[in-house]
């Protein structure tokens, strides 16, 4: 199953939203009860993390909203702040419904993430665009059959450099992981020289230094 071209076209952010006046005019022409929203293949949940040191990690993680149609995705996306406007220590996490954005979740614990680290200048030039493209890759099932292994994506806003990652369910599924990484790099239109690496959550959670070794890279 893959989402139709019509749905993918609808995922394009270029079409401006109708004004209330335009909407009311269109409702006169067509019965609003006949309008059917375009379904996504999966239901998704958007989470927000704010680093409040007085609270536990789980208390800082808050579910914003869930959606399963193209229209509800854009309604949510256009309603929230862009990552570049968030404070340091904040995250957005978009995960398939039923998967929590944490290593310990059953769907995540054997997995890992494709990780892209941005420099400080890229916060203003690239961060929001890369994050939107990442969201479209997920909700549009852009990795073909490999999309089944995708759990979610995270953007971390940090003083030293922001990060965007795509989480997958099994770090041993090399062929699937490489497919996701290559297609993701193409979608972001990264240069051939720009390398992104894949790290297992196990290695990330048990690292002793400041960096985690890459299992795979593209």
UniProtKB/TrEMBL annotation:
This protein's UniProt keywords: Initiation factor, Protein biosynthesis, RNA-binding
Cellular component annotations (GO), alphabetically ordered: eukaryotic translation initiation factor 4F complex
UniProt record similarity statement: Belongs to the eukaryotic initiation factor 4E family.
This protein's name: Eukaryotic translation initiation factor 4E-like
Molecular-function GO terms, alphabetical: RNA 7-methylguanosine cap binding; translation initiation factor activity
Organism: Gouania willdenowi (Blunt-snouted clingfish)
Region span, Disordered: 1-28
Biased composition (Polar residues): 1-13
Keyword Protein biosynthesis attached: yes
């Amino acid at each position: 199953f893959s989402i139709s071209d019509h749905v993918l076209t609808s995922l394009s952010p270029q079409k401006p939203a109708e004004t209330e006046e335009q909407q009311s005019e269109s409702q006169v022409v067509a019965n609003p009860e006949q309008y059917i929203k375009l379904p996504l293949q999966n239901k998704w949940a958007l989470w927000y993390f704010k680093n409040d040191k007085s609270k536990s990690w789980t208390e800082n993680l808050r579910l914003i909203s869930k959606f399963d149609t193209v229209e509800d995705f854009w309604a949510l996306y256009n309603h929230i702040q862009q990552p570049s406007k968030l404070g340091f220590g904040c995250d957005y996490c978009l995960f398939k419904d039923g998967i929590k954005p944490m290593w310990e979740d059953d769907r995540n614990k054997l997995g890992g993430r494709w990780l892209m680290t941005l420099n400080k200048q890229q916060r203003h030039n690239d961060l929001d665009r890369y994050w939107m493209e990442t969201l479209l890759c997920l909700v549009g099932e852009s990795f073909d059959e490999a999309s089944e292994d995708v759990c979610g994506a995270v953007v971390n806003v940090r003083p030293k450099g922001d990060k965007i990652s795509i989480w997958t369910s099994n770090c041993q599924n090399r062929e699937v992981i490489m497919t996701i990484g290559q297609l993701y790099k193409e979608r972001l239109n990264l240069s051939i020289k720009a390398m992104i690496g894949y790290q297992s959550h196990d290695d990330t959670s048990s690292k002793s230094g400041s960096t985690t070794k890459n299992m795979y890279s593209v």
